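User: What would this chain look like folded?
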Amino acid sequence: MDFKNFISVLKFTSLNIYYRLFIVFNTFENIKIKGDQFGNIAPESYAKWVGRMIFKTSRFVFGATCLSRALAGRAALKNKGYTSTIRIGVYKDDSGKLNAHAWLMSGETIILGNEEGQLAKYKSLMDMG
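Assistant: Here's the prediction, encoded as structure tokens.
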């Protein structure tokens, strides 16, 4: 691993840790983020790279969740001046249990949250940002 990639791994791991702790110590009301429709949609190749880096480095963070990954990815994109949206959705499984999930989008591109193709079963409830 070259130095530039090493720095990227450190940066994305730090974002994952920060937003995991942010979720632990805050209520959902405090986590809600203001809409940020200013900025450009991220180029798809860059957005997908950010998504892969956030997802891969979240393995090093105990208790990382889809919401903490989405928040970290949003921060990484915002840092470069790109706009993104965190979408929250739910689905009811066969036993009647309600399951929630968060994913990150830039424009119509899904950046994080569909790594296992799970989004097809979720119904979107709200967008954050």
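Residues 3-128 form one domain. If you want, I can go into more detail on any region.
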